[in-house]
Amino acid sequence: MSKILVFSPFEVLWSHSYPESLVIEALQKAGHEILKIKCEKDFATFCVGMAAFGKSISSSDEEKEAICRKCMARGFLLNSRLKIQSEQLFAGKDFEEVWEKFYKSNKTKMSSNKLKSISFRGYPIGKFIISSFFIKNKKSNFDFTTLQLKELVIEAKNTLKSLLSAEEAFRNYRPDRFICTASNYSVNFAWCAVAERNNVPFYYLMCGTNLSDRYQKLVLCRGYSLQRDLLKAWPRFKNRIISKKEIEYINKNINILINSKSVFVYSKTTDGADIVKLQNLGIQNYKKVYLATTSSYDEIYAAQESGLYSKPKGLIFNTQIDWLEFLISEFKKQPDYLLIIRVHPREFPNKRDSETSDHAQSILNLKKRALKYSNIYFNLPDDNISLYSIFKFVDIGLNGWSTVGKEMGLFGIPVISYCKDLLYYPQELNIVPDGIEKYKKALFAEIGWQKKIGLFKSTYRWQIFEDLISKIDISDSFSHNENTELPRLQKIRNQLFKKIDPLFVEKSDIRNRSKEMKSGVLITKIIELKLRNKVEYLMKISDDVNYLKVRSDEEEGNIIENIQRLNHEFLRKQSKAFVFSCN
Predict the structure, then answer these.
(1) Which domains does the chain have, with CATH numbers?
(2) Taking the model in full, what pTM does it have?
(3) What is the C-alpha separation between 577 and 451, in angstroms, rounded?
(4) For 281-316, what is each residue's pLDDT tens digit?
(5) Cα–Cα distance, 421 to 93 (Å, whole number)
(6) Residues 6+ apart with CB under 8 A from 434
(7) Hey, which residues does 35 pair with through a beta bridge?
């Protein structure tokens, strides 16, 4: 039996706290002792839970208090119904005194790039702060507004409190394992660092990545990054042949992306108005259409500055602006080719947040300089054009490290990327030239059919590996699907019951869970054996990753058929490449 410590400060986020509790319940049933450390208004000034409900540091105390009450109510419900032992986090009786001394010593550092050098008892607390604060505020530099600096100070105080509470809990409880949700939140990052110092294996939990069932799939990973683990394991799985049923699973996610059914989809729904706008550009008159997709800088910048990811060396282009300037210089000499530069919607206010990134102004300045070239078009969020409407016309994709670089492959669009070390997926999904001259040559070179189908097969296989094989299925205990439209009468019924009992939905989830969650054994084995994730578990129990009875020629035919179907049904597009291949 192991002693397992769980840090759960944001129980108001049901999509995190409920799966986390299912994991705890499975471990308890296997005989392990669990202690959950919770927040009871300890981060009441401002926290992740409040931000998730659309609040800010400027919100009223009453609004913040309402989130705290909801958080504690959901936490009490989970702990009482699932019989979870819990304690309030405790940073010491003299915490306010410690904080004042810490703040006084580091106040000037907080407003500059010296923020990342702030430490406490040897812990790089400044880097913990950067990990989530920079993403929330879309920062890619250390220039802060007055309001941002105010929020940063709150983040620093919460992180210090979390760090001291972690030290106290590890000292008193002496756990064998540690679990939290999303290790890159600054307050959680601190606990992971304490676990690391105490040589305690630590794990993080997250929802799945296929939007059709993200609540029914679970990430359980040791360390900070499942994605890095998947890239390392990919050589063992890249030849695994996928089935028609698995291709349909990919299509479910694509359907949500195209119809913009999720808050996690930045692009709008594709419609006829998009086509009119694009045709007004004369898009149909060009020999080839290229789509260059940018990424928001804050996420990768935060990961690098916080130490979660190392900065790559030997990039063809040092910045995205350098890359775009190069593309403009090349395409202005190719008037028969159209270059569409799709600026990531996250650079500007969107349906998930109201922030504008630091990087956005640089892109707008570049757009002004490119206006004189008729074959170069900057597609900004204000244009209100769906990414997938643009796909209808695209022949070749150009990418930095955006995940659109793999999405295009699912639609039969070959992609050229310039930075293999920044990709969150295997480089073999794209064409990745080595050096500026090879990149320049690749831009306008013909791509053979065998090369294309090789790229597309790798993309489909990776998508199943990432979304399905690497995730843990908890659908027998969490059936809620945010994309399913409930019947009108059921909606009215739920609303009435919620007025009587605000926790009606949460209680329904708990009541309907499986008595013995099927994945409980898998979860327990991963934790007990100190495995990194489900993929390592699969590799240890089986050497055969090609366990589906599908021939390679059937797989290729299924993928080609699916690309044709996606282009016809979703995009209403007849792809020249696939017409040629079938003749």
Answers:
(1) 3-231+473-540 (no CATH), 253-471+555-582 (3.40.50.2000)
(2) 0.91
(3) 12
(4) 889 899 999 999 998 877 888 888 888 888 777 789
(5) 46
(6) none
(7) 5
